[in-house]
DNA sequence: TTGTACGCGTTATCAG
DNA sequence: CTGATAACGCGTACAA
């Protein structure tokens, strides 16, 4: 009961050799139907299960891929992982997940460990605090595909799947302009990060393209919290000419803004339109439901997985692919001025 | 560059044998400091990485565990997984995740595949539609620890970590009673499932223990959607004697109820107190913030991982442990009648 | 202190 | 069509 049955066990039972058993199990054409039957029957009887470890060692293919994210229980990341798993599991791959907790040291450890575990690829959303890339270079040196998703580092030879933040911000801002808003503010998070720079740039570009003036006073920073959103909103509303629309670089900021505006008796969207970013699940439940830029995490995961599959199938040829996904603006009540 | 370096490579380089290298790397006491130094240096130089596959095959320990959930991008499940990963990763285990999509056939396939992959344990939240248990028995037959979390099946030899739904419902109901509510309704989901039966039972028990009458009219069913919550709330409010409190078995129901009550001009919590179940992230963002029973997913994950570790460390001795976690009621404004 | 030889479970190669 | 053997990379008795 305890010992796992191997092909030797079933070979012995049938008075044939393990090689034959292996061939029968793998449907090798040059094997008699007769023995194939026998082997299959005996395998079933002994409850034989192929040991993938041995296969992996022999073939050099572990059929495991490593997925690394800062935290797995964030809606965005868990959705990306879902996409990856759904794409890769049917192809016979196992998905190993690890969390960096936004810690560079941990990230390095994880990557080393995954390499030790002989994963066939590493798909990673780089930690916010990662400053070096030696660990990534090591992955490349081993010739195993490395794929960045959402958060990337500049590094030759690495494929990536990211979101067009600029485009998302542009769409959001343009939408607000189309609603007739004349003074559009922007709440940003951390301008040290590329994604927020891009969102700011998209916002600016949309203003410019529609002949609207960019006003630095309309750009306020916030931390990733509701209270921060409230504070930022207060700052904006205390301006001599308060804005009539706010595009926040995250959803919590948008929520905080809405709460503050309600507190001071403003109506949304009549007095001020709001658009957030990320399309977190809660946005659709709010009153009013909050418009937000969707980051399409599921497609991002599936795409990342597909890029890996391409890479693995193009033996020898090194490919470096950069996929940039288009975000889609989910328009809801918080930014819909004119009815419908 | 392409070939991975093995202990043989570094042995050859140093004119010693692979065995010695292996020992040096593993800090075997009976090895000269001299050669140890040399080996370590050469290992670093050649960028040697231990091949865990070979080790796993040799030792019979893969250092992988499989975690199976219906969908990974549900807040509850991803949080449980986070707990598992955080507990197991430091111990050197890799966490392989798979999703059943609530499909029994898929679940069976996944379990088989994990067995093939030689995982050391399977931690699973059973699919809602699973009716058989042959695949689980197989796991037990192979003598690998099987641990159910959140959703369990009755099966000897399997450990489990679940939530005390009865207790959670009891607490919620008792809290409403303490707020002075006299007519407490209950929204339930699917009474075919044990967890909802238990929540209903906890609700009833709390009423009874406080000398309050159970009124079947106050129990309404709902699907897991907001609109369902609205419909159910309407049904309740149309009763001759509408309730002054609602305890919903999920958060979406609570949210729908709040939205409907607001629509018809009721004030929350003054006219009607609301408590939900699950403590989904959005509950805290709502207006008013919704009280809810927290299912402590993180502790559940950590506990499940610990149970596995115990099991693996108690060689030979079969243990079957059932941990039932106490839920904690998160009290928020939606159920706080008397100030504070 | 170090070397020799073997086995973990598979498959691929080469004979037969 | 099938058997024997080597090899994947590692750790470990046993021997020296």
Describe the structure.
2 copies of one chain form a homodimer. Chain A is of the alpha/beta class. The first copy, chain A, has 3 domains: about 5-50, Orthogonal Bundle (434 Repressor (Amino-terminal Domain)); about 60-165 and about 295-325, Rossmann fold; about 165-295 and about 330-335, Response regulator (Rossmann fold, 3-Layer(aba) Sandwich). In chain A, about 40% of the residues lie in helices and about 15% in strands. Chain A contains 12 helices and 12 strands. Chain A has helices spanning about 5-15, 20-25, 35-45, 50-60, 75-90, 105-115, 135-140, 165-180, 195-210, 225-235, 250-265, 295-315, and strands at about 65-70, 95-100, 120-125, 145-150, 160-165, 185-190, 220, 245-250, 275-280, 290-295, 320-325, 330. In chain A, the strands form 2 sheets. Chain A has a 6-stranded parallel sheet with strand order 2-1-3-4-5-11, with helices on both faces. In chain A, helix 5 links the parallel strand 1 (about 65-70) and strand 2 (about 95-100). Chain A starts with 6 loop residues before the first helix and ends in a 10-residue tail after the last strand. Chains A and B meet through helix 4, helix 5, strand 2, helix 6 and helix 11 of A and helix 4, helix 5, strand 2, helix 6 and helix 11 of B. Strand 2 (about 95-100) of chain A pairs antiparallel with strand 2 of chain B, so a sheet runs across the interface. The first copy, chain A, binds a DNA duplex (16 and 16 nucleotides) through helix 2 and helix 4.
């Amino acid at each position: 009961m305890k010992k796992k049955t191997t092909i030797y066990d079933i070979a012995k039972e049938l008075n044939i050799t393990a090689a034959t058993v292996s061939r029968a199990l793998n449907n090798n054409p040059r094997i008699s139907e007769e023995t194939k039957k026998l082997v299959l029957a005996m395998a079933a009887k002994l409850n034989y299960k192929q040991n993938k470890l041995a296969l992996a060692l022999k073939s050099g293919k572990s059929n495991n891929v490593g997925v690394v994210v800062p935290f797995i229980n964030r809606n965005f990341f868990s959705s990306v992982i879902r996409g990856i798993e759904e794409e890769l599991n049917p192809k016979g791959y196992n998905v190993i997940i690890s969390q960096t907790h936004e810690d560079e040291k941990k990230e390095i450890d994880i990557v080393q460990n995954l390499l030790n575990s002989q994963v066939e690829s590493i798909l990673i959303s780089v930690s916010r605090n990662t400053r070096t890339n030696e660990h990534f270079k090591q992955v490349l040196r081993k010739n195993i595909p490395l794929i960045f998703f959402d958060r990337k580092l500049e590094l030759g030879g690495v494929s990536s799947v990211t979101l067009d933040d600029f485009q998302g911000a542009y769409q959001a801002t343009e939408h607000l302009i189309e609603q007739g808003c004349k003074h559009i503010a922007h709440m940003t998070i951390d301008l040290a990060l590329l994604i927020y720079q891009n969102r700011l740039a998209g916002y600016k570009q949309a203003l410019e393209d529609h002949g609207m003036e960019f006003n630095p006073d309309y750009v306020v920073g916030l931390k990733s919290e509701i209270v921060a959103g409230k504070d930022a909103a207060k700052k904006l509303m205390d301006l001599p000419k308060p804005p009539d629309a706010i595009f926040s670089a995250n959803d919590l900021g948008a929520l905080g803004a809405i709460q503050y505006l309600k507190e001071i008796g403003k109506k949304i969207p009549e007095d001020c339109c709001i658009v957030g970013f990320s399309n977190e699940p809660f946005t659709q439940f709010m009153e009013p439901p909050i418009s937000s830029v969707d980051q399409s995490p599921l497609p991002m995961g599936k795409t990342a997985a597909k890029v890996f599959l391409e890479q693995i199938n193009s033996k020898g040829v090194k490919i470096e692919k950069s996929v940039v996904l288009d975000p889609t603006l989910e328009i809801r009540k918080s930014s819909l001025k004119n009815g419908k």
